[in-house]
Amino acid sequence: MDFSTVQLTGEQQHFKQEVTALLGEIVTEDVREHERRTGDGFNEDVHLALGRRGLLFPEWPVEEGGAALDRICQRLLDLEIARHRVPMVTHSTTRLVWAGVSLSARPELVAELKPEVAAGRVRFCLGYSDPEGGSDIANAHLRAVRDGDEWVLNGAKLWTTGAHNCQYTFLITRTDPEAPKHRGLTMFLVPLDSPGLDIQAIRTYGGERTNAVYYSDVHVSDQYRLGEVDGGWAVLRGPLDAEHGSGRPDDGLADVSMSVSWTRHLEAAIDAAARWAKRTTRPDGSLVADDPAFLDRLGALLVETEASRVTPGLMGRVKGSLSYIAGIAELIDLVGTEALLAHGAEGALDDGVIEEAHRFAQGTATYGGTTEVFKNMIAQHVLGLPRLSLPGSKSYVR
Ligand SMILES: Cc1cc2nc3c(=O)[nH]c(=O)nc-3n(C[C@H](O)[C@H](O)[C@H](O)COP(=O)(O)OP(=O)(O)OC[C@H]3O[C@@H](n4cnc5c(N)ncnc54)[C@H](O)[C@@H]3O)c2cc1C
Questions:
Q1: Is residue 208 in contact with ligand 1, taking CB distance under 6 Å?
Q2: Is the CB–ligand 1 distance for residue 204 below 6 Å?
């Protein structure tokens, strides 16, 4: 591992100052409050402000709507976005989908959408999970039936996060129910304002907003088909692999773990506990921060965050989530009931950061593929063990 520091050029330092100033200006307390209230993982004003400066796809050339940033400036931008806690969930799904759309959509559609995506006016969500089961994506039930130059969609998708803030869903459909399950799938980019499409809100325990989306005789033009009919699995593979952490630049400037944002949440909660310990005394008058047992447990948590931060690939996804969930439980144990006071409650610790992280942590074991499914993938694809085959079990196929 290369631990050398990166010397910023004058230009890179100037860029960092500019980005810090910009985010300080646009990520206001109102933006944070909006995020707490909605759980959207998205703020339109912030998103459009970044788009106007080419910062949504900063690696793209300026003439294509990007900012032509070098890798160091891209990294500086990522770090500042994380530090300012910019709600970026919808942007992440848009980036994942664009990777598939740019390869599989008709060239005219790509040309039409690219400037809109760069500017932030067009956004995409992931329409993978069926109510019958999200882990086994290839077991999609939502039906698409050809009708001349159109397709008619009927069925439902659960957990389509961001659908209410996006223009298109990247939808996996069943076009041939007779074919083996991976061969009868077709992908579409479906306009979310299509008649017959109904978006219903779901609010999670962690405070995130996601959606159930119902399709009743939704007509979509064949122009929006991505890739071949019944060839949807090939279209889906790129965005799915990217969501699972592959394809990251190997230049020392990308995060090692794909779960690093969860680790940052845990670190913020540890910082809050440390500040609490420095101002809180035990009944005997001693400062909590002077208690060796407290320091030992807090230190162990910090070591865990470092281990999570540097665990790569599929293991990083599992470790990031499990350390986060266990770490927050440990902090609640260390601090006590004060840790469970929520944002806005009198006496809430650092504005309820531990309480919020505790709720949020639970969902990380589920979305993007559960930790159980990832453990199976590690067994098969990293350790080379045989595939788990239990009678009646679902299989997650890559
Ligand atoms: C907040 C949130 C946001 C989400 N956002 C999106 C989104 O934007 N788009 C989208 O398409 N989906 C989204 N999802 C869905 C998510 O990807 C699925 O919930 C997840 O893949 C699990 O699917 P499931 O809920 O249907 O559970 P199931 O697949 O029914 O699994 C139930 C249980 O069985 C276990 N299990 C299943 N199969 C296996 C296996 N092969 N080996 C071992 N254990 C197994 C699971 O670990 C789980 O504990 C989101 C979910 C949440 C909670």
A1: yes
A2: yes
Residue at token pair 């665990």: 311
User: What pLDDT was estimated at residue 2?
Assistant: 66
- Residues of the chain short of pLDDT 70, as ranges, are 1-2, 390-398
- Residue reference for tokens 């409050």: 33
User: From ligand 1's centre to the CA of 158, what distance in Å?
Assistant: 10
Assigned token pair, 229: 């009919």
With a 6 A CB cut-off, is 135 part of the ligand 1 pocket?
yes
- Predicted structure pTM score: 0.94
The finding on whether 321 has its CB within 6 A of some atom of ligand 1 is: no
- CB-based contact 74:59 (threshold 8 Å): yes
Residue type, 369: G
Q: How far is CA 34 from CA 39, 40, 69, 295, in A?
A: 8, 8, 30, 36
Q: How far is CA 277 from the centre of its chain?
A: 32
Distance from Cα 49 to the centre of ligand 1, integer Å: 33
Contact 361, 325 (CB under 8 A): yes
* CATH assignment, 124-237: 2.40.110.10
- What per-residue confidence (pLDDT) applies to 244? 78
- Atom 2 in ligand 1: residue holding the nearest Cα: 367
Q: Which residues of 211-237 are buried (b: 16+ CB within 10 A; e: fewer)?
A: bbbbbeebebeeebbbbeeebbbbbbe
Q: What would the pLDDT profile of 80-136 be if each residue is shown by its tens digit? A: 999 999 999 999 999 999 999 999 999 999 999 999 999 999 999 999 999 987 788
Residue 14, token pair as written in the block: 């100037």
Atom 31, ligand 1: residue with shortest CA distance: 135
CATH 1.20.140.10 fits 260-382, yes or no: yes
CA distance 147 to 208: 37
**CA of residue 217 relative to chain centroid, distance:** 30
Domain ranges of the chain: 10-87, 124-237, 260-382
**Distance of CA 60 from the midpoint of ligand 1 (Å):** 33
Separation of 378 CA from ligand 1 center, angstroms? 17
Closest CA to 302 of 263, 260, 336: 263
- Ligand 1 centroid to 43 CA: how many Å? 26
The answer to whether 219 touches 213, Cβ cutoff 8 Å, is no
